[in-house]
Input
Amino acid sequence: MTYRVILKRGKEESLKRFHPWVFSGAIARIEGEPEEGEVVDVFTAQNEFIAKGHWQIGSIAVRVLSFKAEEAIDSEFWKRRLATAYAMRQSIGVAGRADNNTYRLIHGEGDNLPGLVIDIYARTAVMQAHSAGMHLVRKEIADALNEVMKGSIDNIYYKSETTLPFKADLFPENGFLQGGSHDNVAMEYGLKFHIDWLKGQKTGFFVDQRENRSLLEHYAKGRSVLNMFCYTGGFSVYAMRGGAQLVHSVDSSAKAIDLTNKNIELNFPEDTRHEAFAEDAFKYLDRMGDQYDLIILDPPAFAKHRDALRNALQGYRKLNVKAFEKIKPGGILFTFSCSQAVSKENFRTAVFTAAAMSGRSVRILHQLTQPADHPVNIYHPEGEYLKGLVLYVE
Ligand code: SAH
Output
């Protein structure tokens, strides 16, 4: 049974430019009664085929899988898309390195697979569905993954309890689709990390900060480092290797602090340069002294939706003012936003305002974004979500 979604007149423009979403407001009528997650064909008002993709109830009604009428969405399709993504990771030197087995294999729209994320941690793949469609075909995708990665993974962990639309009644359960190893240590650029895919945030680790952590390492020598919002301590471990004089990690979650301590212990056992504190960021920034000359601010997304934008920008401003006020002269600030709803310009304005409020002289050294294994589909610029600035504060 093929379902046909017919668009309102003129609503095919964004699809002509290969944007991978159909909004519910663009739809004139539907022929047939697709269940959430089924594949539908999309037609213009003139009855011309334009795309096919996963159907879902909500503001994004169709997530496009293909713009070709003849391309079937079958096991060969999943294999082709996964193979293309894997070949790209190999060709850019992220996969297949001796010192790195932590990377993102599938980044949703960025890999022409809207609704799907797969991160690789050593011999375990952690798979996350963000759409009903990807949830329904999870086993087919797991089979394709095995074939494409030919023996380089043993375990596939499915982790979608918090990422699927609640109303779709899918009742996803987190668990292994294959294997079940408890060996959870993976390597990123020669450093070891415990990955908590069972209970951790996202797929267990923030793979997207790899290149930025690596840059930080080059600035760490001899500095006193504050890693605010440390989660698993990624930036802290790189700062230690970079030769920091001391590293303080702060996160409001006791579990995050526990993970950070474990990861430091794994790489730098009994090294007394590191200390971690379970405390609220704003409280810590208020009570701390002016001993730090390298500060990292990597907060959770302050704006999950566009409506929250104003408050989010205020949040970024307040947070950054505190860092500007306390950082030592000659200090370096790594400041980030991972909110998709906050544009590069918005974020820069918030940080700019914070700098002006503190009265410090500030220069931009680097403008950072997400790494190459989190590619942005050029037809879907919304996919660029991570923004960072490295600032020199006089
Ligand atoms: N920098 C990390 C990722 C940070 S994720 C990395 O490279 O892996 C954001 C973290 O902020 C989470 O661990 C969360 O527990 C923490 N957090 C959220 N609100 C906080 C607050 N008010 N104060 C301190 N930490 C907070």
The CA atoms of residues 174 and 320 lie 37 Å apart. The pocket of S-adenosyl-L-homocysteine is lined by residues 206, 209, 229-232, 234-235, 251-253, 256, 280-281, 298-300 (CB under 6 Å). The mean pLDDT is 95.
